[in-house]
Amino acid sequence: MSISSTATLAVGDRVTSPSRTVTEVLSEAGLAVPAGSALAGALAAERLVPALPGATLAGVDWTTHEAVSPDETVVAEGVVTRVSGRTVRRHIRLLDTTGRVRESGTQSWFADTELQTVPELDFCTPAWGALLAESLTEDPEFTASLSSWDGTIGLRSGEVELHLRVYKGRIVDVTRRTPHGATFTFVASDHAWVELVLSEENDFMRRAIRGEFSSTGDGYEYLRLTKPLHTIIGHARALARKACS
Amino acid sequence: MIEARYLEIDGALGFVEIVTPSEGSAHGTAPLPTVLCIHTAGQSGVQWRHVARDLADRGYRVVVPDLPGHGRSEPAPGGPVTSLVGYGDWLCAVLDALGIDRPFVIGCSIGGKLTLELATRPERPLSGAVAMEAEAGPGRVNVAGLRRELEDVAGPARAERTYLGTLASVGRSVPESKAHVIALMHKREDPEISSSDLIGWGTHDVRDRLDRVTAPIHLVAGVDDPWIDPAAVGRVAETINATCPGRARFTILDGIGHYPMEEIDDFAALADTWLGELRQAGIPEEAAL
Question: Per its UniProt entry, which superkingdom is the organism in (chain B) (predicted)?
Answer without folding.
Answer: Bacteria
